[in-house]
Automatic annotation (TrEMBL):
Name this protein carries in UniProt: Proteasome subunit beta
Pfam families: Proteasome (PF00227)
CDD domains linked: proteasome_beta_type_2 (cd03758)
Annotated compartments: Cytoplasm; Nucleus
Self-association state and partner proteins as the record states: Component of the proteasome complex.
Length: 198
C-alpha cells in the first residue's frame, strides 16, 4: 500500500477539521496535483482517505451511496458513530470474503446535533478508534508531535487554522515528494465548507 499521502484531522470547540494533500504520487512520479482526498458523505460528514486511488474511489463511493440510501429509506440521517461502525463492518467483510482488504487508511469526521463534532481513525484492517486528533499516511510521522503539543480542547477556528498550517509546514519540510497543495475542509452545525489556509 502506498504511504505517500498525508491526511490529518482534529476536533475543535464546535467543529471538526480535516486536511489532505492533493498529490497523487507513486514512487518518484507525480501523476496529479489536484486530487481531492476528502470525500463528502452527506451534509455533515467527510471521509479523508490515504492509499491506493482505486480503493479510495471504490470504498468512498460505496459508503457514500449506502449512507444516502439509508437516509432515503428511513428519513433518518446516520450519526458519525454509526457510519464509522458501518465502514468498519464493510472493511472486515471485504478482508474475509475477498481475500484482501481495501488498500486505504481513513479519517472519518462529522458533526451531529446530539453528540457534536467527532473524528474516527480507521485503517485497512478495520481498526476503529474515536480520537480528538489523528493522522494517516506519511503525516503521523511528522504531525503527531505537533498536535500533541498544540492541540487543546475547545479550540476556536482561528486556532485550528494555525494548527493546520503548522502541520502542513512540518510535512512540507520533511517529505521528499513535495506536497504543495492541500485541501482543508471544516464541518460544523452549518454543514461542510472548504477553507483556504495557504
Amino acid at each position: 500500500m502506498s504511504m505517500l499521502d498525508s491526511i490529518f484531522g482534529f476536533v475543535g470547540k464546535d467543529f471538526v477539521i480535516c486536511a489532505a494533500d492533493s498529490t497523487n504520487a507513486r514512487s518518484v512520479v507525480v501523476m496529479k496535483d489536484d486530487l481531492d482526498k476528502i470525500k463528502v458523505l452527506d451534509d455533515h460528514k467527510i471521509l479523508a482517505m490515504a492509499g491506493e486511488v482505486n480503493s479510495i474511489a471504490d470504498l468512498s463511493e460505496y459508503v457514500q451511496k449506502n449512507v444516502m440510501l439509508y437516509s432515503l429509506r428511513t428519513s433518518i440521517s446516520l450519526s458519525t458513530a454509526a457510519v464509522a461502525n458501518f465502514m468498519r463492518g464493510v472493511i472486515a467483510k471485504a478482508i474475509r470474503s475477498r481475500g484482501g482488504a481495501f488498500q486505504t487508511n481513513m479519517i472519518l469526521a462529522g458533526y451531529d446535533e446530539a453528540d457534536g463534532p467527532s473524528v474516527y481513525f480507521l485503517d485497512y484492517l478495520g481498526t476503529l478508534h474515536k480520537l480528538n486528533y489523528t493522522a494517516q499516511g506519511l503525516a503521523p510521522l511528522f504531525v503527531m508531535s505537533t498536535m500533541d503539543r498544540h492541540w487543546k480542547e475547545g479550540m476556536d477556528v482561528d486556532e485550528a487554522i494555525q494548527l493546520v498550517k503548522m502541520c502542513i509546514s512540518e510535512v512540507r519540510k520533511r517529505v521528499l515528494v513535495q506536497q504543495f497543495k492541500y485541501t482543508v475542509k471544516i464541518v460544523d452545525k452549518d454543514g461542510i465548507r472548504v477553507l483556504d489556509v495557504e
